[in-house]
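Could someone model copper (II) ion with this protein?
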Amino acid sequence: MNRRTILVVLAAIAIVAAAAFIAFRMMMTPPEGLDLARSKASAKGLYAVAIAPEKEPLEQGPLHSWILTVKTPDGAPVEGATIAVGGGMPQHGHGLPTQPQATAYLGEGRYRIEGVRFNMSGWWEFTFDIRAAVGNDNVVFNLTL
Ligand SMILES: [Cu+2]
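Reply:
Sure, complex below.
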């Protein structure tokens, strides 16, 4: 190989390495300015929703439960809601590793969500479809682990 060919090969290697590094960073690093609020209005504004893990700090690995609190915007607890739980890792293109369920109504608009597991570190979306007398709405929370 002549000197020019070697330079071209080295430049190509550097470009591939840089692209791999950037791709890796995009996979692993949550976007800046991600909204990490644990209470917010649902998409259509029908509900004021809050989430809290039953145990802090939030750990990667073990199965655990959350408490989901659903109220109307003026603060009245929402009872008898049907909750569907979903989520995943937007940067990895996969969903939750388990199928969490709302297993109990605890009063005051609070629902226990069991069977949650976050098996990787990074950015997770945690979504709730809420069906109740007021209407159907959904909310998406962001978590970073
Ligand atoms: Cu992942």
